[in-house]
Design brief:
With about 375 residues, the chain is of the alpha/beta class. Among the domains are: about 200 residues, Alpha-Beta Complex (Spore Coat Polysaccharide Biosynthesis Protein SpsA, Chain A); about 45 residues. About 35% of the residues lie in helices and about 20% in strands. The chain is elongated and about 95 Å long. The termini are far apart.
Length: about 375
Amino acid sequence: MIYDCFTWFDELDILEIRLNTLDSIIDCFVIIEADSTFTGTPKEARFLAHSARFEKFMHKISYHFVHLPSFSHLPTIEQPWARENYQRNYIKTALLSLAKPSDIVIISDVDEIPRPQSVAKYAKALSQRPSINTPRIEVLACDIFYFYLNNLSFGHYWYAGAKMLTFGDLCDDELLAHWAYEGEARFLIPSLNVGTSASRVRMYNGNKQRVHYPCGWHLSYMGGVDCVIKKLDSFAHQEWRNSADSINATIAHNAATAADCGGGGYILLDSRTEQRALQIMRDSRFCGYKLIALPPQSAMLPPFVRANADKYAHLLLVESSAHFVRLKQRALWWQRKIYRICRLIARFMLSKIGLLPFQVPPTLRKKEIEKL
């Protein structure tokens, strides 16, 4: 059997896309929701409130609503990551009553959706692994889409996407026993990750895994301004945030002022790349990569999204509106340039008949004069 195990906050559209995309290959979806955000704000069981929407999948869903401790004994900067680790590590607890050692387990976040063809291919590879010395974790690296389902982060892939291994290996505390985590300490709380935990598997980057690409879609920061603000308020990466009040104010202000851009101008303060300027996400860079709006029927998008483009229109960036701002800016630039050249020609012609002394406008560049 193949178990698709992921943490979930409240991304209803993304959950629907994932379930429909993987329904043909997954035997059981293990959904782990928590009773608070990673920043400690209490929340209700959102999945239960919307379970009717996923009725056709309920026979293969194992849902778990987990209580997150406060971890008040830890430093403040580690507490969000302790909650994140705890929720993810519950995947292993949930599987103890479900899976056999030979079963295949996928570990990811809900917005890291593997391709069903890749799941089938590497599940077979894990099942037929020739020896214990061969790689025991298969990593399904994803293309990344920010803010819209078709807003591709060009040249950027998510190497920490869905990870596959057998349940027997997940329960083998020796699998990652000799691996020393070299990332930021707060991302992996030692007391919560003794042996082989789901969080250690996610963070692992050693030679016991193989990375395959392209094998999925990472659909991040979806849902519009309100959802982006909610995510910033809730996720573990609080080091990426500036003042909550200032960010909320700038997002709200610029969303309003972008209303003439086709109804899609979701804007965010990108502090990760240390850019304090506001980024218009449909015509800019994010995390250092260019964002490109693909056609809604692009083969790079999940088939279920392409087949239901009308349903997810609020999450798709239409090409015409995607380039509205840029085209408007280019048109204005050309308009000003043509005006200056025409004014220069008019001055030149008038000077020839003695009606006006010829002067080169100081704003006209030398290269523009040479082209005349």
